[in-house]
Each structure stands twice: as structure tokens, then as C-alpha cells.
Amino acid sequence: MSVETMKVSRGGHLASKSRREKTADILCFLLLILLGLIVLFPIYWIFRSSLMSNGELYAYPPAFVPPAWRLENYSETLKSFEYLKFLGNTMTILLPAVFGAVVTATMGGYAFARLRFRGKKLLFTLCVGSMLLPSMVTLIPLFIGWSKLGLVNTYWPLILPHFCGGGAFNIFLIRQFVKTVPRELDEAATIDGCGYFRILVYIIVPAIKAAMIVVGLLKFIELWNDLLQQVTYITRRDRYTLALGLNIFRGSFNDDWSSIMCATCLSFIPGIVFYLIGQRYFVEGIVMTGMKN
Amino acid sequence: MKKLLAIVLCLAMMLPVLALAEGDGRVHITYSFWGNQTEAESVQKALDAYNQMQDKVFVEPMQIPNEQYTETLVNYAIADQLPDCGMVNENSVLYFARNGVMADVSDMYAGEKLQPMDCITFKDGGTPVGYSSSNEILILYYNKDMFDAANEPYPSADKPYTWDEFVEVAKRLTFDENGKHPGEEGFNPEKIVQYGAFVNNWTWQMEVWALSNGGAWFSQDGKECLINSPEAIESIQKVADLALVEHVAPLNVIPEDNGVGVGIGSKTVAMTTDGTWRLGTDFPNLDINYGIAPLPMMREEVTICTSGLTGVFKGKHQQEAYDFVKWYTREESNWDALVLTGIWLPKSEYFYKTEEGINEWLGNEKYPYNKDFETGRKVLVDYTMNYAKPTCWYFTPNTQVTTNEILFTALQSVWSGERTAEDVINEIYPELCEAIVVE
Amino acid sequence: MTAISRKKRIRYNRSETQAAWLCLLPSVIGLTCITYLPMIASFALSLFSWNGLGDMKYIGLENYIRLFTRDTKFYGSLLTTLEYAGISVIGSIIYSMIIAMLLNRKVPARGFFRAVFYLPYVLPALAVYLGWKWLYDYNHGLFNYLIKLGGGTSVKFLDSSAMVTPSLALIAVWLSGNLIVIFLAGLQNVPRTYHEAAEIDGANAWQRFWKITIPCMTPIIFYNLLMSLVSNLQVITPALSLTQGGPGTGSYFMCFMLYTQAFKSHKYGYGSAIAVILFLIIAVFTGILFATSKSWIFYEGDDKE
Could you say which of A55, A155, A248 has the minimum Cβ distance to residue B265? Predict the structure, then answer.
């Protein structure tokens, strides 16, 4: 759809589109293929490792293709890696947290980018300042706080913080994107009698949809990788997340590399799926921008 | 609308999480441990057994990933949320004990037939503060097929290799892609196909070589750091030189791998040193013909013993936890899951000093190394009794700083060949001395 | 100064202020309870000697004095962190800008390529580093095999203090799919009318890139620069999952040092002191970035007068 729109508009304007442009496109395509292969290679290598025995992994010279495709590695691994359960637990934390982060970050970013109020500069500085702090610094005070509230060993300490602005990075990202939206749009809406929240919902949100999806993705990955917090708050196996599961899986004797690689590959799947879903919205976002201009 | 639905669903999914533990009139206590799935299952089996045999106490497991175990436990201690009992990593036992978190268990085995061995008793200034749940010693493993292929006699169970013999044998077992051995004309150290030896260089395991070379890391009262003695320094350099100079061992700068899985299991290394737990955790899964022998010796015949401790933490259910730990750490309670699988060597003298005791485990047909009873007896039983010394964390405070952090990081430069052991040890020596002082 | 602020103050409008605070309410709660209060607590801790379980002892600036005068690894750690951040920030900004520009063109299978370059980022970081071990490993790694095949001598990618930082930074560049996506989203927000107008005026692709794309992208470049600088200065995962800080101080990043000292060695006060220093270092770099930003960022809908 978007590509289509682009073709029409470009073709219409410049009928004498040069051949050079086409060659450039082909060159870009080839370059993308080359870079893509380089980027994919380490992932292939991990996948290949998951299909080999430990002995084969350490053999010299290394095999580019698994000598025998040991798909049974996966069934072996799944016996001890409770994939679906860990995945369910992960999603229970991730979905509400990502939603909370996107909503509150959009609100915050909009306020910082567009609204004028006293104390904005200070608040913004404090907001940016909070990015500079490694998260582990606040781990212990926060842990004490949550345990005073009796919420250790529940998912709340892993979810609720994300309803509080969704992190300075994300507020900041939204702010940057709101700033790229032409101000005339909301001025026009104000003249039509829209309040600030209506402007946010009807003008800003559609315009920065792509950025909101990005925030969602970033949050998803951030939480996905946030082993430190998960280790601290979850200690019951039936509540384990994938990250914890993967870690436990390495266990106290971490040398079963082929199984670790299997578990690794399995843990890749949700991120990829989430990305593919997000990707669809990306395309929509492009259409929106296309219509706007 | 869909989004809203998703949120409602998510919240609904969380409800069971919030449900509190059901009241059943029993005292619920928590036991914390680390380990992988197999280990978790065997822990659960033991807990089930305990929960069934009495109806006053119900023990719940709390599983924490190995690499974050101690810090998580400390976080819980700071927030006053410690479990009632749990495994404690060796390097942190004295730290927990000294800070008044662990209950006194020194009378746990008073008057019992099964007395834990002295070398696995944690002592703070000479006073016992805890006992390891089992025993583990370091031994030499070798791949018999690889020795056969090189026409090399197996390492003897009676007389350990001297270090020079060890290096010589390792050279004969090392070859490059043209079949050349180290020291031969045309040998290419860049293209080695098979290595002769792998000495596990996890920091704590290195202490055995200092002892073997006639030195030590720390004095027996835990107050003095002796690691800068020429013997201790030389022992580190000798191990590093196996890879750097002799080319008989693979380079292992980040001491994470071990020679069992990496080496003799995959037939890239012919012999390796490691702990006895490998008999249970690794070898049953490896389809190889292996043998065991005492460690090679530099000057003195010695090995070190160690094993984690199951601690009782102070709290309102201290007595219940004490009773559970006493039950749990008996060999009998873990007999099938941990002793007969080869993961634990027994901790009580009875199982080393009496014929019946030895027969109960080593003579059992389920025991992984029962095929060669005589060798097993020499390498596991007699070696423990006659040559095992406690690892430094049994008597030196703050090993979570010294071995875990300072030495660990510093020695990496030695393994990589960037600096000599002497250079590195002299640089960190003042830090080590400062670290073991406790006020 | 005063003239400007007075001028601004007149323009504050009550309903606007209310709307703003309502929008920012969650963030304010978050900043207070989740960030700043715990942070103050932690920073206060840097004046104490505390092992977590025992009593706290007030020791004034002793932790800082020790850090700067007696710690043998502090300066090494600092240099390593800066080197890592430098290489990975510059590397990943250039890399992801190039990829984003390529992906913004009319190429076949764009969606597929976008997925390919983003893929590394959506994988669990810990697992990714474990996977790279099989490429970098001295004995069994692919890279060294290829080098030896070509007749070279093995390289200690992770096993020498000189090579380990760039080797890890390369993984960071590989992982920078998030920057690509943000750049892409930004490129798609560049009004096409500008390009079309310039094209009609006869500007070539190169000129359009420098005169239109880059200026329109400056807010996004700034964000990416800031984000990747801050996150790379706080690097810890590669050290935790792959190299454990060594060899030497080759991967002993400041965050790793903080973590090791506080959580592994139970020197919480000392760890807090490291956190304060790290915070200040990041603040200085961020401050520089912000201070220079006014002169090179172009905001289309800015509220500047």
C-alpha cells in the first residue's frame, strides 16, 4: 500500500526519473543482501549449535552445517525447559507493563513537547537525569519498599513501575517525535475547539503512532532482558519467566551447551513474533504519514 | 477495545498470583536452593518425603538461579525476608555466620553415630559454625580410549604423576593436524587437534596447586595471606604454562568451561582435573570410557575438599528449620538422589573409615564408579582420608571478595599470558591482605 | 534571562498547566518513588561502610578516597568503559543510519530486510552473548578457524585485554537494531514534500541527504546519540554473561565493577560510591551533548520563539 502510494507520487512528479536512480536502488538492494547475510550469520551459528551434540560443538575444525540434524535436542530441552509456562508468565508481566509504558510515556512526552507550564524545565531535567542512573543502584531500596508493601514474590513490582511514565527514555523519545509534528496541526485543532487531550488523542497519537510502536518494542525488549529485577522478585519456579528459566537452565553445572543453545533459540521466538506484529502497525504508520503530507 | 480486553485478561491472569498460601494448620517454612531442572526435581522429592513423614511442618522450595544466588539471599536478608533455611555458597558461609544471620548448628551432630568430617567443617576463628552437606574433592579424570589410542599406560591410582611426568604424558597425548607432538620438529601450536591435559582453573580450584607445591594461600587461622610466597606463585605459573608454553592444554582465559564437558567428553582433551560431583552430573550423560586417578603433584600429594552448606537462618521458625536441615543433610535423606548418583560424596567419617560404610555407597551397583571398586576406593575414599585439606573458605573470612573477585579478575591476565603470575600476585597482594581483615 | 522568563510566565495558561500536570502525573510519581528517593538513599549509602548484613558505619568520604587512590582497577575500569562506549556509540550510529537509509529506499522485500536488521535486538541479550562465544572463542570459535584457514595466527578476541573491548563493542553494533527502527520511524516522518520540492529544484540525492534528511533527522539523531551513549556507558551484560570483567580490566566496565563490589563482594557503600561517580560521568557526557544540541538540532514544531 505504502510503496504503491510512493510510486504514484514519485512517478507523477518526475516522469524523467533517471536511470541512475534505478541503478542506485539495485546497488542498495545488493548491499542490503550482503549486510543482511552478515547480520544473520551469528544467529544461524547459534541455531546450528542447537542442532549439534556437545562433542560436535568442540570438534576441530568447526562444522558449518550440523553433521547430523539433531532435532531431538529440542525435545530433550523442552523436557526440562517449561517453555509454555515460562512464556505465559513472561507475557503476564510484559503485556500490562508495555501497555502502561506506552500510554504514560505518550502522555508525558506530549506534555513535555507541547504544553507550557511552570516547572517544565526542572521536571524535564529531572526526567533526563533519571536516565543517567544504572537501574541496579535503586534495586535494594526499592526491594525494601516493595517488601514493606508485602508484594515480593508477586508480579506487581515488575509491572506497576511501568505505569509511572514508562521510563525517561521513552518519554524523551515521544517528546522528540511530537516535536517533529508540525505545530500548525494542533493550532488548527485548537481553533476548531479541541482541548489538549483531544489534540493528544486525535492529532498527536495518529501522527506518532510509529514512535509509540517503537516505544512498545523497546519496552518489550527491555523487560525481556531485565534479569536482575526478575531474579530479585520472583523466587518460585511456577512463576518463572523465560529469562529466569533460561538462566536456571544453565544451572549450577553450565556445560550442556547444545541444550543451552536450544533454549536460546526457543527464547528467540516471542521477540520475533512481537516484532512481526509491531511491523504491521509500522506499515500503517507510514500510510498515515503519507496521507498527512 | 481489543487492547482493553487484553488488559483485563492479563489482570485476570495475575489473580492466582495474589492468592495467599492456604491455611492448613502446619508451619510453612521455606528452603532456598540453586540448581538446574534435575537438581530442582531431586530437591522436590526430598521435600515431599519430609512433608509426608510428619504433619507439623510444610517445607516449600525457593529456587534462585545459581549465578545470582548469594546476592538474592542477601537482598532478602536486608529486607528481612530471608527463607528459613537454605543452601549457602561456600564462599559466603563465614560472611553469613559472622553477621549473625545463621543459627548456631554446632551441636547438630552431637552424640550421633554419623559425624561429619573435620575437613568440611566451617570454622570461624577455630569455632565450628557449620557443616557442608556433602564432601567433594578434586581428582584427575582421563579418557581411556584416548590413552589406548596413544599406547599410553593409564594414570596410576596408587602413585600420582609428578608434575613433570604429567606434562610429559600430556605432550605425548597432544598432537596437531599433522600428528606432531609439542617439542617435535614442525609442530604447529595453532592447529592442535587434541590436547593432553586440562587443569581446571576456576579460582578456588587453583588453591590445591599452591598446597601441592608446598605453599598455601592463607594461614590456617585465616588471618594471614600467604599467596605471595614463591611456591604459591610458581604453582599458578605452572598451570598457566600448560597452555602458554607447553601447548598441551587449551587456552581458558575466562575460567568458565571445564575439562569434563569441553574436553574429555568431546575427546578434545585426554585428561582433566575437576571435582568429584562430575561423576554424577556429567559422566552419566557422556558416552565415554573414563577413569579416575589422584591429582598430579608438584611437591606434595594433596587434594582439597569442599561442598556447599545448608544453613539455618535465624527467625521465628528457626527450630522447625533446624529439624528439617538436620534431617535433610543426612546422607540417608538424599541417598538415592544425590549419593548413589555420584553427585555427593558422603560427609560422615563412617562412610570412609568402616568397611560397611564404604560398601553402602561405593559398593552399591547404582553408584556410577562401582565398576572398578579398588580404584574407586583408592581415589575417592583413601585420597579423601589421607590427603584432603579444606579449601580456604572453610577458615578464611571474606573469600567472596578474595577468591571470587580480586583473584578471579587478576588471574585472567595470567591465563591469557599477558602478565606473569608473580607480577599480578604482587600487585594485588596488599588488596588481598586488606580484604581478609575483619573488624 | 529574567526578561525571557517574565515574558514566558505571562503566557502560562491555567487549563494548559492543568492538562500538563495531569499528563505528567504518572511520570512524577515514578520519578519520585521509583527513581529519586531510592537514589538519594543509595547515594547516602556511599558515605557508609556496610556489608549488607552487619551494622552501617559512617566513614565520610573514605569510599571515594579509596576509589581514587588505592583501587588498582578503578582507572582501568573507567578507561575500558569510555573506550567501549566510544566505539559502540559511533559504530552503531553510523551503522544504523546507513541501514535505515537503505531500508527507506524503494527496495524489494523491505519488510523482510527490516526484520533481518532488527532481529538481533529482539533476541534475549544474555543468550546472544552466549551465542557469540562460539564465534569468538579462541580454541573452538569460527573466527579463529577462518583466520587459521587463511594462514594467520589465532586472535585472542575475548582473551586479551586489548582485544576484548572492541570485540564486545562489535556485538553492541550488531545489536543496535533499536536505533535502526527509530531512525526509520524518523525518516518516515520527514515530510516528503520537502524532498519533492528539492528534487524539482534540481538537488541531487547527496544534497538532499545533507540539506533535508539530516536536518529533519537531527532530533532523532540526538535522541539516538543520547540513548546509545547513556546505555553504553551503563554496559554490563557482556561482562556478566561472557567475560566476567577480564582479562585485566579489559571488560571490567564500571557498572560491572559496581555490581561486583556491591552485590558479589557485599561492599554496598563502596558500590554506591562507584554509582555516584558513574552517575557523574554520564551526567557530564549528557550535559555536553545537551549543551551543544541547541546549535545543531532543528525542531520543526518547536516552541522556540
Answer: A55
Among A148-157, A244-253, B248-257, B372-381, which is the least confidently predicted range?
Answer: A244-253
ipTM exceeds 0.85: no
The candidate with the shortest Cα–Cα distance to A103, out of A230, A190, A205, A247, is A205
Chains that touch C (3 or more CB pairs under 8 A): A, B
pLDDT at A45 over 90: no
- pLDDT reported for residue C303: 46
CB contact under 8 A, C185 and A62: no
Chain B residues inside the 8 Å CB shell of A81: 37
State the average pLDDT over residues B187-198. 89
Of B74, B254, B428, nearest to C266 by CB-CB distance is: B74
Q: Are B286 and B265 in contact (CB under 8 A)?
A: yes
Over chain C, what HEC string results? CHHHHHHHHHHCCHHHHHHHHHHHHHHHHHHHHHHHHHHHHHHHHCCEECCCCCCCEECCCHHHHHHHHCCCCHHHHHHHHHHHHHHHHHHHHHHHHHHHHHHCCCCCCHHHHHHHHHHHHHCCHHHHHHHHHHHHCCCCCHHHHHHHHCCCCCCCCCCCHHHHHHHHHHHHHHCCHHHHHHHHHHHHHCCHHHHHHHHHCCCCHHHHHHHHHHHHHHHHHHHHHHHHHHHHHCCCHHHHHHHCCCCCCCCCCHHHHHHHHHHHCCCHHHHHHHHHHHHHHHHHHHHHHHHHHHHHCCCCCCCCC
Domain A81-292: CATH superfamily, name plus number? MetI-like (1.10.3720.10)
Are both B25-135+307-368 and B138-305+398-436 of the same fold? Answer: yes
Task: Tell me if the domain spanning B25-135+307-368 has CATH number 3.40.190.10.
Answer: yes
Architecture of the domain made up of C46-296? Orthogonal Bundle (1.10)
